[in-house]
């Protein structure tokens, strides 16, 4: 990306993106220092400090005595919810890094809230042409591989109830529930999902569920691939590698609990 001083719109968007990523980390994971923020964003400490100070000014963050920042009033969540998400993310990251090394594509971890999914962790591949980090982003669940896997955990009644609260949504945003139920039944049976350009043009995603000790999906692990590089013949291998990663996350999560 060009860093010309005249590119004000580009610079502004990058700054907003960095601030939102920091806000997401504070909300989902808890406290961090300027040095930790700089490392997460890949920026200088002075830049991270300015971003955190702006979040404090707008009540998205608070500065504690010492060097740590935490979620402010705008971002306050229940402590249990935040710690559970943080625990899931910290357990998953080593497995995601190994997954990326094995398949050389970017990996993501998602959780569902209602009819949306949030990307709580991303690890990018080292390839020049790659799908970038989606961490902190929110998508409609029926538009992503992970979202479809998590929707597949729901009964027809739960699915109807979840989408009934979206009466104010534009018609184009409402899924055809009969068609969706059919897709979810297939995904429930095969235990993996493929998204070919459904959420983002030019991107193919393959995902599997991450299950708790009772066998219920609590998250979804996926790899995102530029469509020009996707080979359908590679699907069985991708699914097998993803399942190994998901099983590793589930095992470590159970031990952590």
Question: Would you spell out the secondary-structure blueprint of this structure?
Answer:
Elements: H1 8-29, E1 32-33, H2 34-41, H3 45-57, E2 61-63, E3 68-71, H4 79-103, E4 106-113, E5 116-123, E6 138-140, H5 145-151, H6 156-164, H7 177-190, E7 193-196, E8 203-211, E9 217-226, H8 235-256
Antiparallel strand pairs: 1-3, 2-3, 4-5, 4-9, 5-6, 7-8, 8-9
Give a summary of the structure in a few sentences.
The protein is an alpha+beta fold. Helix content is 47%, strand content 20%. The protein contains eight helices and nine strands.
Please, could you describe this protein's structure?
The protein contains 8 helices and 9 strands. The protein starts with 7 loop residues before the first helix and ends with a helix. It is of the alpha+beta class. The chain folds into 2 domains: 68 residues, Arc Repressor Mutant, subunit A, CATH 1.10.10.10; 178 residues, Beta-Lactamase. 47% of the residues lie in helices and 20% in strands. The strands form 2 sheets. It has a 6-stranded antiparallel sheet with strand order 6-5-4-9-8-7. It has a 3-stranded antiparallel sheet with strand order 1-3-2. The longest helix is centred in the middle third of the chain and has 25 residues. Helix 2 packs across helix 3 and helix 4 packs antiparallel against helix 8. The N terminus is likely disordered. It is globular and about 55 Å long.
Helices and strands, in N-to-C order?
HEHHEEHEEEHHHEEEH
CATH class of the largest domain: Alpha Beta
The overall pLDDT average reads: 86
And the CATH topology of the largest domain? Beta-Lactamase
CATH superfamily of the largest domain: GAF domain
- Computed Rg: 19 Å
Count of individual beta strands: 9
Strand order of the largest sheet: 6-5-4-9-8-7
What fraction of residues sit in β-strands? Answer: 15-25%
* CATH architectural category of the largest domain: 2-Layer Sandwich
Helix content: 40-55%
Helix vs. strand class? alpha+beta
Shape: globular
